[in-house]
Amino acid sequence: MFSLPSKFLRPTAWLCALVSAWAGLPLQADMYRWVDEHGRTVYSQSPPPSGNAVKLKPPPPPPPDEVKAAEERERSAVDRAFKAQEDRTRAAQDKAKQDAAAEQRAKNCAAARQNLETLQNLGARPLRMPNGQSRYLSEQEKTAKIHEAEQQIARYCQ
Q1: CA distance 158 to 137
Q2: Which terminal CB of the chain, N or C, has fewer other CB atoms within 10 Å?
Q3: What is the pTM of this model?
Q4: Looking at residue 85, what is its pLDDT?
Q5: Above 70 in pLDDT, residue 152?
Q6: What mean pLDDT is reported for the chain?
Q7: Measured between alpha carbons, how far is residue 98 from residues 34, 92, 93, 132, 154 in Å?
């Protein structure tokens, strides 16, 4: 169990006593209104030296149901703001995903076009395979690979 040394307890007790005493004080100070020597209306928490001022009464607090309604409106506004921010964040993430997908499609399209050109211009040379080995393709294999490259172009190059 954690305990504070006694030298810390005394200032803490004094602080609690001060806060408790302060909490009991009225929250609104007196307000005064008067007209100064230049004809301007002045509002202040202290009366003028002449003492010629009107002491203002604070307006009554709003009814509890109005306070609750205002709090609910504020909560609702905060909720809408958070929802709007979430929507903007989600939209930005979706756009980033779409941009990445479009970039990948463009890369795939370029690769498919390059593959098709390589296959069409292959002639009697060996073809380098994805595993790094080279081999000659039969006409049937070459036709199948050209067809596959054309399908990839149709899929990625829209």
Answers
A1: 29
A2: N
A3: 0.49
A4: 96
A5: yes
A6: 84
A7: 66, 10, 9, 32, 19
Q: Which H or E element spans position 34? A: strand 31-35
CA 84, CA 100: separation in Å to the nearest integer? 24
Predicted confidence (pLDDT) per residue in 3-57, tens digit: 545 554 455 555 555 555 555 445 557 889 999 889 899 999 888 888 788 999 8
Q: Which residues contact 36 (CB under 8 A, 6 or more apart)?
A: 42, 48
State the Cα–Cα distance between residues 97 and 8, nearest whole angstrom: 56
With residue 147 as reference, give the H or E element that holds it.
helix 139-156
Q: Is 99 exposed, middle or buried (0-12, 13-18, 19+ CB in 10 A)?
A: exposed
Q: What is the pLDDT of residues 78-131, one digit of tens each?
A: 999 999 999 999 999 999 999 999 999 999 999 999 989 988 887 777 877 778
Burial status of residue 89 (CB atoms within 10 A of its CB: 0-12, 13-18, 19 or more) = exposed
Give the whole-angstrom CA distance, residue 158 versus residue 150. 12
Name all contacts of 99-105 with Cβ < 8 Å and 24+ positions apart. Answer: 105/156, 105/158
